[in-house]
Amino acid sequence: MAATAYLISPTTPPDYHRVISPTLQIPSDTNVSIPVGLLACQRDPLLRTLDTTVVSVSVAQPPVTPAQGKKIKKAVLAPEIPNEPLLHVLLHDTVIFPEGGGQPTDTGCITTEADAAVWEVIQAKRHGGHAVHYVKIREGVSVDTALLAFQTGAKVTVALGDEGFERRYDHMSMHTSQHILSALLETRLNLPTLSWSLTSYPTPCYVEVPRGMAQEEITSIQSEANKLVFEGRRVHVEVEELDPIQEQAKSVPVLESGRSVGKALPQDYTGGVKRVVVIDGVDRNPCCGTHLPSIHNLQLFLLPHTEALSRSSTTSARLYFLSGPRLIAHLTSAHSHLASTAAILSCGPSLVPERVTQVVEERKKAEKRVTDIEQELAEYIAKGLVSQIISKKDGTLHTHHIHRTDDSGNTLGFLTAIAFALGAALSSVEGVHPYMLVLSSTPSTQTTNTVSTVLVLGSEDSKVKAVGDALKSKLNVKGGGKGSRWSGKYIGVWKENRENTGIDEILNTI
Ligand SMILES: [Zn+2]
After folding, report:
1. Is residue 200 domain-shared with residue 305, that is, in the same domain?
2. Which residue windows are coiled coil (predicted)?
3. How far does the centroid of ligand 1 lie from the alpha carbon of residue 270, in Å?
């Protein structure tokens, strides 16, 4: 049987962009710049390249560096503007979307026909009603030569390029999905979208809703969205003249909490176009962004919990979502994390949570056992020391140094445990048995930064202090103490024939 494939058209259908006003004209005069609202990137979101002409050009000096500590509150940062003069180029029409409607700027390039030179467009911004391209002046080219290449009427080709289109495709996927998500939240759960953020790739985007959501609510919205995706609902755009009086009369809805829902048309927009994005049977929403002509392939994944956001008087929540290329990136990285963890644990991916719980439990038990055995060992060492101390019957001072190799994170804790056990054992012994002990501990591998621990304990406080002072001055041990104990740290490589010999010499002079 012969295979057949059904392919979705890689071009935008002709009825995607609908001018619904009999009087609205898309300017055809190439000396005029088409306003934002009617740009090629908005009429045909899959168009990657366009031949057009320059309307005007100017030179912009680099912006003054923002004051230190002043943070720009923006989820997606536009590509950085270099600290050099840029050309601000106004074209008759463009495939490069200027930032707006929550959607970040596109990047791309302009080829000037006369010299076949390719110029990088690092971002595009809406100035009033028009898209201005921020063009980087090519290396070795003077500002005057660059201005000449972009003189009014010059023929150019504006393009997104592969990288620019990939970036745009991701933005369109997330933006179109946001329309579906917001519409379903509003109509099914009466949850208006207070704001949303198209975050930087590949992190999830989010919509902000007035309250947290239960997992069942999230699951039901996700499955309903994916039914619409499966049906491949179509998207189109309707444009007409913007009635400024009507627009001004409209106000952004405000919730009981005082929080406004969404954003009004930017006050500085002078393009004069009213643009409504329609997803068949799902949503009609004024928006200037770029949206895919169909929601095919936009499988929506909602992170199964909302993140509470506390504001002064009200609590809203963020619901994170993924679709299109970002969803694939998320699945790829989640799979690779899980697969590598499964490999470490030598089990199948589905057994990872169980195995991790087991490892954590085993670790807790092992830690408890180490603590118990350390205590037992401390008592055993103390017992040995006590028998040495009491074996001396002539009442003279018993001195002794014990050096240990120990890789524990708390070596002083262990040395202190020996001191406690020693004190407890000696308290039940009759008679006077003067002693002076130095306990020290070093890790098994050493560098110049290695820390070794020293603990001094004795039956006479003044002698403990004298040993501590000698350790400071002769061995460069940093530390201090009170009464019968003195503790310190030695930084560097601890050598048997240097530090240990040094301690023996100190004890011999006490
Ligand atoms: Zn939109």
Report:
1. yes
2. 356-383
3. 19
CA of 178 to the centre of ligand 1 (A): 8
Do 267 and 155 have their domain in common?
A: no
pLDDT 10s digits, 20-49: 999 999 999 999 999 999 999 999 999 999
Asked if 37 and 15 touch (Cβ cutoff 8 Å), the reply is no
> Separation of 179 CA from ligand 1 center, angstroms?
6
Measured CA to CA, the distance from residue 335 to residue 426 in angstroms comes to 61
Three-state DSSP class for 60?
strand
Task: Supply the pTM of this predicted model.
Answer: 0.78
Question: Does some domain include residue 4?
Answer: no
320: CA distance to ligand 1 center in Å? 17
Residues 151 and 290 in one domain: no
- Beta strands 49-60 and 86-91, pairing class: antiparallel
Among candidate residues 204, 206, 225, the one with its CA nearest the CA of residue 334: 204
One domain for residues 277 and 187 = yes
Q: Structurally, how many domains does the chain consist of?
A: 3
In a domain, 390, yes or no: yes
Query: Do residue 34 and residue 154 come from a single domain?
Result: yes
Q: Are 111 and 119 in contact (CB under 8 A)?
A: yes
What is the distance between the alpha carbons of residues 120 and 108, in angstroms, rounded to a whole number?
A: 6
**85, two tokens:** 């003069």
Higher pLDDT: 255 or 182? It is 182
Ligand 1 centroid – CA 186 distance (Å):
15
60 to 18, 63, 140: CA distances (angstroms): 36, 8, 18
